[in-house]
Amino acid sequence: MSTLAWPPIASHDLTRELEATNARELAWLLVSLQDTLASLKSGLEECAALLAPQEPGSTLVLSSLRSESLKGYITRVGTRIVKGDIQLRLPSLPPPKGQPAYRLSVSSLPTAPTIVLEQLKTARTLINACLDVVDATRWTGDAGNADFISSQIRLLHENIQEAKGALKGWSDGHKSWSDDSLEPTTFDPPLPAILSLHLSISEAAIVLHVRTVGGSDAHTGTNTPLSAPSGLSFRERFTTAFTGGKPVFHDEAHQAFTFRGQEVRVRDKVRVESADPSLMAAMAKLGALERNVALSRRALHVVMGKEDEDET
Fold first, then answer.
1. Residue 18 placed within a domain
2. Backbone angles phi, psi at 46, to 5 degrees
3. Count of beta carbons in the 10 Å neighbourhood of residue 201
4. What is the residue range of 69's domain?
5. What's the total number of domains in the chain?
6. Is 68 left (phi over 0), alpha (psi -120 to 50) or beta?
7. What is the C-alpha separation between 178 and 212, in angstroms, rounded?
8. Residues 256-289: pLDDT tens digits?
């Protein structure tokens, strides 16, 4: 079956018709993208609501797998941890006399530092930036300018990707636990000098790392301390010295870290994660929004003749 036009169209007329057709397609696509942007705004507002501070918050259970090393709970309101109770049973952290476990509670004192989950803070900031981009694109920019719309959609796509990445878990550029542990006075009683607690987000779950540390022995390359870190009580110094030769079984056993001005090695390490339904829903919605924006961006580039830019 022939696809030739009859009667034949002159080459200059054919070029003119192709340009007119492309212009009509581009105009139609730019109009339809306004509806797409309205739909995206609705989805972004749902994501923002999931991460917004709403009482009574989300209470998440913390429990170590196949052991009694850590039990407890935390309550998240927005980007903050406002309540929490944790009981630790670690060989290198003896409980107070007469107690079965070392208990820590998030301090309710007004002077206590606030526990802020930086990844959630970043995600909320990026989602709000996306909403600003959508409003600017729909109401203050030139809706008929394809280059402007293309640049705005690209910015929207990048912000959504970063917001989803913050909930999924930062892979680089984040601080080490030794530089970003919770302040001792965040808890009641304050954390002992040998204890580190670090909170992060991974795959829409809140992850708590608990570590006890001992002074680093530069000669043996192990965590057998030559001397206990300064600032320890007599009980903590005694425990540090007494359990210093105990074998350790974790991935940081033979690494040295600088923690609170001291070179230390990790003696006991416990990782606990608790999936947060609100964060899971927000990450899923962001994933769907990311795909929709990517499709709109690709369609616009095809009509504009900029397919190669989809690879950048």
1. no
2. -65, -40
3. 23
4. 31-218+250-305
5. 1
6. alpha
7. 11
8. 999 988 899 999 999 999 999 999 999 999 999 9
